[in-house]
């Protein structure tokens, strides 16, 4: 859309001023950097929350039902101390039955949103010191205290005395709590076994 509008505007200007001189070239600049520093990130238990089977009769008729709470540790080891952001990706987009920043767990065969899971940050340690989890909604320009990993937000850590700025980290540990909810029973058509199929990716941004 932007490219089309620029071409349309240029055509209009040429028609309105046929004798004006126009540049015969334009520049495209690509900037960035390749850093030798890198971080390895991992989740305990292979990042798997195995809930097993649940009966539809265990679900609340109308409210979301918490069916599982799992503690899980996230660890990150970097080759050197650096600023970072964690960016979560919901690999089941459009299936979360809760708020927009929750992660989906798939659809029923009738295309109903089955439920969602939430990722809470219980405690964070950076280079052996307790730190505060923080979040950003604008790609890292501003930061606030945030004890959840939220879809559409970026996460990092700050000193406990100042939540507005990230700190350099080499080794990070986050104690997470994964809460899985299923939507109200009356909103779902479950006449056969339906898989709970949530999947999220947490990637490291070096900026």
Automatic annotation (TrEMBL):
Record organism: Pseudomonas fluorescens
One Pfam family cited in the UniProt record for this chain: DUF1120
Record's keyword annotation contains Signal: yes
UniProt-listed InterPro entries: DUF1120
Name this polypeptide is given: DUF1120 domain-containing protein
Protein's UniProt keywords contain Signal: yes
Signal peptide: 1-22
Record's keyword terms, sorted: Signal
């Amino acid at each position: 859309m932007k490219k089309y509008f620029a071409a349309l505007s240029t055509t209009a200007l040429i028609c309105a001023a046929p004798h004006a001189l126009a540049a015969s070239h334009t520049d495209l600049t690509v900037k960035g950097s390749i850093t030798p520093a890198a971080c390895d990130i991992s989740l305990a238990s292979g990042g798997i929350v195995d809930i097993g089977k649940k009966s539809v009769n265990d679900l609340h008729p109308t409210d979301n039902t918490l069916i599982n709470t799992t503690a899980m540790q996230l660890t990150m080891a970097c080759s050197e101390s650096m600023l970072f952001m964690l960016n979560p990706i919901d690999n089941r987009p459009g299936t979360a039955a809760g708020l927009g920043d929750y992660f989906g767990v798939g659809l029923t065969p009738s295309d109903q949103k089955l439920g969602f899971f939430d990722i809470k940050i219980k405690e964070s340690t950076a280079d052996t010191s307790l730190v505060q989890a923080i979040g950003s909604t604008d790609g890292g320009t501003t930061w606030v205290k945030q004890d959840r990993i939220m879809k559409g937000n970026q996460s990092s850590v700050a000193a406990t005395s100042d939540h507005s700025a990230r700190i350099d980290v080499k080794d990070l540990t986050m104690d997470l709590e994964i809460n899985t909810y299923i939507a109200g029973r009356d909103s779902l058509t479950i006449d056969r076994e339906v898989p709970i199929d949530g999947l999220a990716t947490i990637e490291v941004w070096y900026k």
